Amino acid sequence: MNTPPLAGGAAGPDALRPLLGTVLDALRDGAEARGGPLPAGGPGRVAARLREATGPVLPETGRGPHEALHALVRALAEGAADPADPHCAAHLHCPPLALAAAADLAAAALNPSMDSWDQAPAASALEARTARELAALVYPYGPDGPAHPYGPDTSVPPYGPDTLAHPYRPDGPTPPYGADTSPPPYDPDDAPLPYDPDGSPHPYGPDTSPSPRQPHLSGTPRPLTNLTHPYRPATPTLPGRTHEDDQPDALVTTGGTESNQLGLLLAREHARTRHTEPLRVVCGANAHHSVHRAAWLLGLPEPLTLPTPDGTLDPHTLHTALTDLRHPGSPGAPAVPVLVCATAGTTDTGAIDPLPTLADLTRAHGARLHVDAAYGGPLLFSATHRPLLDGLHRAHTVTLDLHKLGWQPVAAGLLAVPRAADLAPLTHRAAYLNADDDTEAGLPDLLGRSLRTTRRPDILKMAVTLQALGRTGLADLVDRTLAAARTFAGLIDDHPAFELHSHPTLSTVLFRPTGADDTTVATIRRRLLHQGRAVLGRAATPTGLWLKATLLNPHTTTDDLASLLKLVEGHTPR
């Protein structure tokens, strides 16, 4: 038997080329055989077809590369839930761009391991550079001044007259990248209180912020007003740190779950150096389940979960909770170190917590702020929708995820911080990977860039996409996708047989047949799944169970959405 060829080296491409032809043919054949967004028949039938098509996974004698590739890839494609189908819209499960998938092939062929420089010389440099540029989108001002991370903006002014579509147009033309007149950097544990929380019924003066979106109400979202410019993140310069350590940075992760865990870990380590009590995590009931799992994994107390009946974390509720955590007789000082976890794009509705007001509260109470922007973070690319993330830059850590509204193959997550020095708690030594004398000699230390050791160069597909499309190209994809959600909400609102939960903030739309109870909603969803006709999610809210359409396909048309609604209508029990 001949030794199978390798994917790398100068001969690798020639070995790959005929195999890729087989893979692409199998992908096409499988998709045509499936004929819809999901294989019909349910779990049992799908598993049976897979067994029939593939045979034993480990036969005594191999069947050869082309036959094995075609059989298994075709079977997987035929049995796949295909997010490229406009009727596959249940989850934050995006259809990846072809160019990103092609870049992922190159990453697999080269196979760098991102745990030491001698395994990933160029890949580690690309990761460092790309991660910093993405972090600068979240934290556009470094400690040296208000210069925009991409230099002077020569594009069409994003906040000038007539450039923002309703309902996201600010009231004034002042751009958010104006002069920095914000307070100086602060440390959460040493920050003076800007007010006495006990001296006013409302901790931050009259409430002029938009109220949280009410569920199950028609009408368009309220326009954003009084946009404030960003100010420097609340992280003081530490003695002895280099200029690079004071710049924004990001870690590449497997997605929002890992990023949230890292955000809690950094907060825990920060608290350990200043407190004897364990870190307390405060979040809304709208927070992603990974926040609770991360607290469990890190040995922290169960998070204090605040009710979010309107879908977003209410500032008054948070103020009360933070006040209750204070030491008696010590105004403003928390009894324990506190991390508040806010969300910019909830899983169920796509709602965004009132970030500026929550940042004011956490600062006033001496707490840290983590924002899970796994879903909503890519709005930073869009001049039209970026104002929805006003206040994001004030968080101590921010979760991002480009395998949602970034159209990357899984995995493509990040955790952004305002200063690279904030990642110091992750420093770790293993003599065979990052010996002290190697680091002192100038070899980059990669082990502190992740809790994982071996990891793929997932940054390549992200960097290729960023460079190929640019910020305006990505903004167009974001804007198209959010516009499709508004279109779908309009179709539902105008249809007498359906009711709309609320107009979408991002690309998630909740709806159900008028008057349908929870059992009916669940039955409709499962019927569509079993027949392979449509993949819709489900969301439980205070007003009952709803069908959930999470639109992430920028190619979706109005006709696609109308036919999806017709499918649901046709599967509604009479």
From TrEMBL:
The keyword Lyase applies. Its cofactor is pyridoxal 5'-phosphate. Residues 146-257 are annotated as: Disordered. InterPro entries: PyrdxlP-dep_de-COase, PyrdxlP-dep_Trfase, PyrdxlP-dep_Trfase_major, PyrdxlP-dep_Trfase_small. The keyword Lyase applies. Gene3D superfamilies: 3.90.1150.170, Aspartate Aminotransferase, domain 1 (3.90.1150.10), Type I PLP-dependent aspartate aminotransferase-like (Major domain) (3.40.640.10). Pfam families: Pyridoxal_deC. Residues 170-186 have a biased composition (Pro residues). Keywords: Decarboxylase, Lyase, Pyridoxal phosphate. Belongs to the group II decarboxylase family. This is Pyridoxal-dependent decarboxylase.
